[in-house]
Amino acid sequence: xxxxxxxxxxxxxFQCIHLHTFIDCFNEHSVILDLGANKGKxxxxxRKKFPDVQMILVExxxxxxxxxxxxxxxxxxxxxLPVLVGEESxxxxxxxxxxIAQASSVYKEYSDTWSFLGIRKNRGEVQxxxxxxxxxxxAFRVDKIDLLKMDVEGxxxxxxxxxxxxxxxxxxQISVEFHDFYQKNVTKTKSCIERLQAMGYSYVHKHPPxxxxxxxxxxxxxxxxxxxxxxxxxxxxxxx
Length: 240
Hints:
Strand order of the largest sheet: 1-12-13-11-10-4-5-6
Structural class: alpha/beta
CATH class: Alpha Beta
Distance between the termini: 39 Å
Strand content: 15-25%
CATH superfamily: Vaccinia Virus protein VP39
Number of helices: 7
Radius of gyration: 17 Å
């Protein structure tokens, strides 16, 4: 793993799967919420390493959500939720589909991100329902999230800024990919980091080796709350 830049110097057991950093403190009671599960590469690799955890994979692209259903249909510890995640729960949200699957977004400018490579900007749009993290936790009767993984193409700031203090007290780790390759978004990331620090989180981050832009300041960030890392009282995952 590349060098980590931390605001907490204590030695932690950091690990990384598909660019997402986390602290290994999981057991059979742990719940992992994967926002932007895409084709399930992170989910599959994480599941292989931690076979006893319970996972909720959330994917707004209907085609990819169907792929996930097929891929994990024999795994009773994984639930697939074919929705978008945002600051509020609502129906029929426009989702812009990119020819690069991981670039699809509720914001057209993000679904067009890969056009600089000569790739056609996008391949249309679909209407998808949106849920909040709070509503997802309620739907599955989950009291605590041990790892919240986020790769949601530009809506991450809104989601994180919209979470209440009560929810932050129930999420032990947040591994998020900030899409701050636009200069204007670096300030948004800094503001978000300050808010989570005020909520009691420490954080580490690293610059991705594949991105040449000096404007990309944070990108992959792990937030973790010391007081929640060792708690394992999450109930069995059940879809209400």
